[in-house]
Predict the 3D structure of the following.
Amino acid sequence: MAMLRLDMSMSLDGYVAGPNPSMEHPLGEGGEQLHQWAFAVAAWRERHGLSGGDRNPDSEVVDESVRDLGATIMGRSMFSGGHGSWASDPNANGWWGDDPPFHHPVFVLTHHARAPLPMQGGTTFTFVTDGPLAALEQARAAAGDKDVAIGGGANLVQQYLAAGLLDELQIHHVPVLLGGGTPLFANLDPGKVRFERGRVAESPTGVVHVKYRVLK
Ligand SMILES: NC(=O)c1ccc[n+]([C@@H]2O[C@H](COP(=O)([O-])OP(=O)(O)OC[C@H]3O[C@@H](n4cnc5c(N)ncnc54)[C@H](OP(=O)(O)O)[C@@H]3O)[C@@H](O)[C@H]2O)c1
């Protein structure tokens, strides 16, 4: 059965973005350290239209995470970093340029309605204003028998975890401290959200990729 799954890079102190995210620092101050392992590998670079990169266990992890993926759901902050009306958002078409790396339908949860935004390479951003369940229904319909990913950020992940809708998480544990920022596992009832550890993949860069099944 198709799954709802998530991949996120997290610091040792539990943050998925550093303090003070901005146009200059979309991942917050120091947050880019979370993704150095991915930037360096062939599988990530290929999806972003870049050449080169290492073919190593980290690259295999990226390959595996995008395999059989038919749609992605993300929050408006991950999409553009903006707030309020789209007219006042300096990054209203997202971070990724004309050919975003998703290559499938992407559903952006927002309180601000707007028409779908088709991009090159098979990515269309559809803006969903009627909540996480509606976004999931649309994403599942678009994905067919493939999996749906929650792209982030933390706010969205917390909503899908709290609603018991997420099937699997893969956390890329990065051995750095950010000292503050956006915690992944906030605003959750520890008695209601439980996990079972799945496969663990170590990497030459010191990152540990751990899958967790969400117990229903
Ligand atoms: N480490 C990683 O792997 C990773 C991965 C992805 C993202 N990130 C980082 O995470 C940060 C963003 O995460 P975040 O937690 O701040 O925000 P987020 O989850 O990306 O987006 C939150 C925003 O989405 C909209 N939204 C959320 N739930 C909604 C609902 N039920 N109905 C309607 N709209 C809804 C709201 O925007 P509006 O009210 O403005 O419409 C809300 O402010 C960024 O810094 C990003 O770089 C890190």
The CA atoms of residues 58 and 203 lie 6 Å apart.
